[in-house]
Structure formats: C-alpha cells, structure tokens
Amino acid sequence: MLDSLAPMLTRAEIDEGRRYAAEALADAGVVLRDDERAALEVSDFGLGDLSGTGLQLLVYVNTDRVCAKELVLRPGQTCPEHRHLGEGDEPGKEETFRCRRGEVWLYVEGDPASSPRANPPRREHYSVWHEIVLHPGDQHTIHPGTRHWFQAGPDGAIVTEFSTRSTDERDVFTDPDIRRITVVGD
Amino acid sequence: MLDSLAPMLTRAEIDEGRRYAAEALADAGVVLRDDERAALEVSDFGLGDLSGTGLQLLVYVNTDRVCAKELVLRPGQTCPEHRHLGEGDEPGKEETFRCRRGEVWLYVEGDPASSPRANPPRREHYSVWHEIVLHPGDQHTIHPGTRHWFQAGPDGAIVTEFSTRSTDERDVFTDPDIRRITVVGD
Q1: Considering only CA atoms, which of B79, B71, B18 is closest in space to residue B52?
Q2: How far off is chain B from A33, nearest CA to CA, in Å?
C-alpha cells in the first residue's frame, strides 16, 4: 500500500529517458548494443521529479572488483548528495568521474563556493559545496566515504564513471526521502 | 651498452604513433585534454616492430584499486600474449575489454579456433587460440592469471579497458624477448 502511494516513474517516462540517453550517447560516438539500449536505467531516486533529480545510466560492467558506467544527465538534472560506505575489510566505493560532453558541476567536501553554479531541488538536503567544474576531458576521483553530488550544465552532460564494485544498497543519501531503487508505475 | 644494441623506438615513431592515436580517438568522439594528447604512450614491447607488435594507449586513471585506459591499434597491430600475476593477498589484474571502433580478434585460453583470423608476428610465442571476435559495443572480461592477446582487424581498433590496478611490472609475456618498458632512441 505504501508503495502505491510513493512517487513512481511511469513507463512513458522511462521510455523517454532511455530514448534521450541513447541519443546523447550516440551523438557522443558511444556505440551501444541493442540489448544495452533496451536496458538503460532511468532513476528518479524515488522523489518523483525526474527532470530535477534523476539520472540515466548504462552499466558496462560490475564485477566484485571493477565497475564502469556511462551517466547521462539532462540539462540541469541533479544526481543527489550521497557517499559510499565500506563493509568489513572492504573500503567504500572509489569513483573517478570523467566528463565526456557538456559541463558538470561537481560538489565535494571542502571550502564551499561563495556563488555555486548549481541550484539543486530540495536544497536543504545538500551539505557539501566545494565546487569542481568539469568540461569534456576533465575528471575527478572521489575517495570512499566522501559526500558528493553533481548537476549538469545547460546542455546536459555525459560522465563516464570508472570505479570499484558498485553496491547501490550501501549508498547513503543525505536526503532521507531518497530511495535508489526505482518504482515503476503504469 | 646492452641498451644501445636493443631495439628502440625513435622520437619520430613515437610522435607518429601519438598522432595516429589522437586522430583515431578524436574520430571516435573521445575528447582528450592537451596534456593527455602529449602523454599518449606508444609501446613496441621492445621488439622493434611497432606496426606488427605494438600499442598506443592513454591511461585515464590508475589508482591502488581502479584503472581505465583507451587502447588504440593500427590495422593488424598485435598486443602480444601475456597474463597478470597477483602478489600476496592481491589477485592479478582483472580486465574488461570493450571494443569502441573497428574489429578486434581476442584470444584466450580454451578450445582453439581451427582457422584463426589473426596471424601474429613471432607466432611461435603464442599459445592460446580460443577466438573471440569483438565488434563495437562488444566486450569481454579477462580473469586474473589467464593468458590473452589480441590483434586489430583491417581498419585498426579502439578498445576501452576497465580494470583493477595496472602493474605492468607484474605482466608475464610468453615471448621471452619482450620488455614492457619502451626504450627511446633519437
């Protein structure tokens, strides 16, 4: 019953998100197989505001040790603040973000920007404001446990992520209403 | 004295290899920074036959846990047979090769192909002949310790490698004359 009351993505929104991401990747010269195009992931992080807080993504590989993804963002779309916890002897996820297309405003722990470029929805749930601007060819490595978030500039963006194993269930989001697993409606 | 007798790449060969790789990557939509373009690695594996046995590569990132590279091959160029050993508790390098452009003939342990597409120079130093043909969008994961090698098809190729930490000094090549560290002449 709770699930049916929660915000959810419609099939139409998912199809449209997949279409957008597939086109953006094709424009950037990234060749996808048909099965990859059909499986592109669209996430609204459970907030029901996909164009504001959301992400389209393709997972190339995710083994016990290595993960690689393409992250596609619409203009102004935000991947919300979170950090990656470890478990036992394993440190949390380490990520390198490399900008392929567009402009990305990445925020990490450190001296806050006095006039940050990004303005995320639900701003009260964002706590780190050290700004790193990534243009195509620029990249930045996020160390385990570090809070971070990012927003695409006015043309949208493509970011390739090189990382250790991806374990979404161990991501801790600052916004308590976020759920990483997308609920799909009709 | 030994070094001066060993095969070595000339500055002109390295410059030409870098130019070729930068152009191939640009054609594929991969944006490089100026410092990356200038640092593209050209390796002849110490055999002095770059167009036969060789590789052009860009290392995006190589931390204690994660590595990512673009590998650029000229038509028919071969990355020679090798495997990645572990050390102590750490298993050897795990690699996923994703073909971006061109056709790649990848050989791993397993049932040998009866009519393999590739014909590497110094063929006597190749022992694994299980053939995997990769077209753009196709990928294959190589597990630690597994012997492997690959050759580009007639149009050359670009392969993105997602892996654990790259430790060239722990690579074991089947061909005893191979040295991974390139010697540069005048």
Answers
A1: B79
A2: 5
